[in-house]
Amino acid sequence: MISGLKFAFFFLASTPLLAFDLTALMQTLAQPKSGQVRFAELKKIQLLDAPIEARGWLSIEQGVLVKEIESPIKERLEIDQKEIRIIRADKTQRLSLSERPEAEAMVAGLRAVLTGEQALLIRHYQVKLSGSASKWTLLLTPQSDAAKRVLRSIQFVGRDKVIEHINTTMSNGDQTHTSLLQ
């Protein structure tokens, strides 16, 4: 009887109760989100002597990712599946994603993780997930040559269903560290 209990305990202790993999994470991230989240961003650009700091709000409005920058300058970025709109002082600049495959890949990575779209993610990136459901890191490496010329990787760090940090490393070594302030 005791040996049976030892076996049962060993079996239960060695078997994960809930599997944590990319599918589980993406299902968690796919849950509907609303509202805004504050962000603080630090860009390290090799051609500049000092990093650039930015602050503002991120949100998803009707399928459009919105980045509202409050400082150092006021700027609004709206990113949908077809284009990026940059709005400054009532002037709008548009960037078609179909004409810029490297930008399309970057946007696809952000959208896929923020909305839990696993098929979109795998189409554009090699994916490495580490950690557990309570503390995880998702590393994306672009698959297309066009994206690789510009982007080295995007790393998401989170806890449970909350993304806490997004780290982007460009092929030229420039880096952006974005903290999402919950």
Listing every helix as H and every strand as E from the N terminus to the C terminus, the arrangement reads: HHEEEEEEHHEEHEEE
Strand content: over 45%
What's the Cα radius of gyration?
A: 19 Å
What would the average pLDDT be, to the nearest integer?
A: 86
Portion of residues within helices: 25-40%
* Contiguous uncertain segments of 5+ residues: 1-17
Tell me the span between the first and last alpha carbons.
Answer: 51 Å
Which helices and strands occur, and which strands form pairs?
Layout: H1 2-14, H2 22-29, E1 36-44, E2 52-61, E3 64-71, E4 75-79, E5 83-88, E6 91-96, H3 101-115, H4 118-124, E7 125-132, E8 135-142, H5 145-148, E9 151-159, E10 162-170, E11 175-181
Antiparallel strand pairs: 1-2, 1-11, 2-3, 3-4, 4-5, 5-6, 7-8, 8-9, 9-10, 10-11
Helix pairs in contact: 3-4
Please tell me about this protein's structure:
With 182 residues, the chain is an alpha+beta fold. It has five helices and eleven strands; from the N terminus they run ααββββββααββαβββ. It has an eleven-stranded antiparallel beta sheet with strand order 6-5-4-3-2-1-11-10-9-8-7. The chain is globular, with a radius of gyration of 19 Å. The termini are far apart. The N terminus is likely disordered.
